[in-house]
Design goal:
single chain, 3 domains, Rossmann fold, flat
Length: 317
């Protein structure tokens, strides 16, 4: 069950006497938009404007809408704080709860993989479940380690698609990792960033999976993209205007490095990076400086590299 507590948001709206509020919510909550607006407007004197564009994380704050509507406060649902901002933001993370956690199933999987020292990881929405599993595994005599990663990490064990530091910090101290959450994007990042076994446990359906196959497929695809990029003559460097993804200095540096090799490089700026926006542009290879998820996208059947992969290509040509 998904729990959403907007009492904090209502309290902050009243405290700041906000008259106009911007509401930003992830795709999974769009169906509750009207209910949330009615609750806020019914409990406060504020008028709420909901942003219906996709939001991919706390790196994607609705700063433009705040300025356009001269709003007093941004209510950002579903994520913990990721980046500093000049606007006033109230973060309201979601929290999942489940009736039962099959610890015996988790125990068997960990034992089968010979993981006695386990590093626990999660998406922030599953942090409360992570704490339950931590307690249960300790009772079963496992050594459990949690670490808070870089400054953009909100709590111990949290990982993001762009930040696996909570895992990297304890990699040498554990036999493997257990990730708690739904989907494979976050734990796959851990599997690629470390040399340890990663098991992904989805408490919503009780399934637990070894990500070795997914890691191998991902790595093969990355090698394929690198191989295709070796013959590229024209590169397109993708820059997102989203607050937490904007890396313009990196983009300019990449352009210089590409041009030093006698290749052409062009910088393309977008708020939301989509293949449709790049139709008709004759590019051989794209380089992504925004959300790492984008390298998995098919941008008009062209290879998409991250900066580190580009450096590898440039060293070989």
């Amino acid at each position: 069950m998904l729990k959403l507590d907007i009492k904090k948001a209502i309290t902050e709206i009243k405290k700041k006497n906000a008259k106009t509020v911007i509401l930003q919510l992830p795709e999974g909550l769009k169906g509750k938009t009207l209910e949330i607006i009615e609750r806020i407007e019914g409990k406060t004197k504020a008028k709420v404007i909901a942003v219906m564009d996709p939001v991919w994380g706390a790196c994607d704050l609705a700063e433009t809408e705040m300025k356009e509507f001269n709003a007093d406060l941004l209510i950002h649902l579903g994520h913990a704080k990721y980046t500093d901002s000049k606007i006033k933001v109230v973060y309201v993370p979601l929290e999942y709860s489940v009736k039962e956690i099959n610890l015996d199933k988790i125990q068997r999987m960990l034992e089968n993989e010979k993981i006695k020292k386990v590093g626990l990881l999660c998406a922030v929405q599953f942090y409360n479940i992570l704490k339950e599993i931590e307690k249960g595994l300790k009772k079963k005599k496992f050594t459990v380690l949690l670490e808070k990663g870089g400054e953009k990490i909100d709590c111990k064990g949290q990982v993001l698609g762009c930040d696996q530091s909570s895992a990297v910090k304890i990699e040498k101290k554990v036999d493997g990792f257990l990730y708690i959450g739904d989907g494979f994007f976050h734990p796959l990042g851990v599997a690629v960033s470390t040399d340890k076994k990663v098991l992904a446990f989805n408490p919503l359906n009780g399934e637990i999976k070894d990500l070795v196959e997914e890691k191998n497929i991902f790595v093969r695809k990355r090698y394929g993209s690198i191989a295709r990029a070796m013959n590229a003559k024209v590169f397109g460097i993708l820059v997102s205007r989203k607050k937490g993804q904007l890396r313009k200095e990196l983009a300019l540096e990449l352009k210089k490095r590409i041009e030093r090799k006698g290749k052409k490089a062009f910088i393309f700026s977008m708020d939301f990076i989509k293949s449709e926006y790049l139709m008709g542009i004759n590019i051989d290879c794209y380089v992504n400086t925004a959300c790492p998820r984008i390298i998995e996208d098919n941008l008009n059947d062209k290879p998409v590299l991250n900066p580190e992969e580009l450096f590898e290509v440039l060293e070989k040509i």
